[in-house]
Design a protein that fits this description.
- The complex is a heterodimer.
- Chain A is mostly beta strands.
- Helix content of chain A is 0%, strand content 53%.
- Chain A has a domain at 1-33 and 59-80: Immunoglobulin-like (Sandwich), CATH 2.60.40.10.
- Chain A has strands at residues 3-6, 10-11, 16-23, 45-52, 55-61, 71-77, 82-90, 94-104.
- Chain B has 2 domains: 22-45 and 145-257, Cytochrome Bc1 Complex, Chain D, domain 2, CATH 1.10.760; 51-137, Cytochrome c-like domain (Cytochrome Bc1 Complex, Chain D, domain 2).
- Helix content of chain B is 41%, strand content 7%.
- In chain B, the strands form 3 sheets. A 3-stranded mixed sheet of chain B has the order 6-5-7. In chain B, strands 1-2 form a two-stranded antiparallel ribbon. Chain B has a two-stranded antiparallel ribbon with strand order 3-4.
- Chain B starts with a helix and ends with a strand.
- Classes of the chains: A mainly beta, B mainly alpha.
- At the A-B interface, strand 1 of A face helix 3 of B.
Chain lengths: 105, 258
Amino acid sequence: MAALVNVPPKAKRGAVVEIKALMSHIMEPGYRRTAAGELIPRDIITSFTCRLNGAEIFRADLFPAISANPFMSFFTIATESGKFEFEWIGDNGFVANAAANITVE
Amino acid sequence: MRLCAAAFIFAALGALPVLAAEIPAADRRSGYSFMSSDSKAMQDDDTANPGMLAVLEGETLWQTKQGDAGKACADCHGDAATSMKGVAARYPAFDAALGRPVDLEQRINICRRDHQQASPFPNESHELLALATYVAQQSRGQPITTGDDSALAPFIAKGRELFMQRQGQLNLACTNCHDDNWDKHLAGSAVTQGQPTGYPIYRLEWQAMGSLQRRIRGCMTGVRAQAFDFGSPEMVALELYLMSRAHGMPLETPAVRP
């Protein structure tokens, strides 16, 4: 599964930085039926987490009404250099990870 | 396109003569220019454009060895940024061996079959769309040159004929909407000029990537016509006509469309 994360590579200490994360996923809501009338089972991402150097800075729960390929955008304050780690967890054992580094000066 | 929407304008369009006035080069506009600022922003930002996920997946496939030949696209074509630059901007192209035009997806499947000795990807499959998007993205910003090859002339003429021909229960031709009424709305959607500049596209209504053929089939179903099959000669002729009609317009792949 492809993920696209965007973190500014450099930031001034105390600056507000935007973090963007796009994840490839069908987000099948579980309410639709096939042409033959059979229910298409739910297959969604249920949780998204972002950590900086191991400490959680953002978390979101996702629900069936969220579109395919969910896009998350949020802000944080640049406090220290390090590694942002992103994790998506979902139905059918779905797990995907991505990471990006930031240098705070 | 929704059926009721097409029925809604049937009364208005059905009564008009076929004007079939082709759009002058100076007035050609991509579907992009009709979009809301939110959709434009989504297309413009490579970190928010969901089509970029298909580009990433296509890049991975480009590097992956496949088939009995055990070869990756990259083994023969090297760096796509060089070898594939401008290629999508001149497709569909004339295939001398087949004696007819093939579109980009078909060309990719020919390489899979003949050069990788692998089974072709199904139409609209995730993999085929990802590879086509990756290849086409290498031509982003390049002017469309499809049709410069004179061997294509009779096929373009065929595509034009199909574009001008009324069809379906609503008895509407592509030209009735996309040449004659492109500046109007159809139940809230801009009709647009039906320009093929962004394919494969990420369509918000589909929540997925889709090919130009899928888009055309949507319009055909909208006028309650029997849509041409994927990969049929009629479909490729229509694609070819649309691309030659957009001659000189920059390719936008991966575009976002409502």
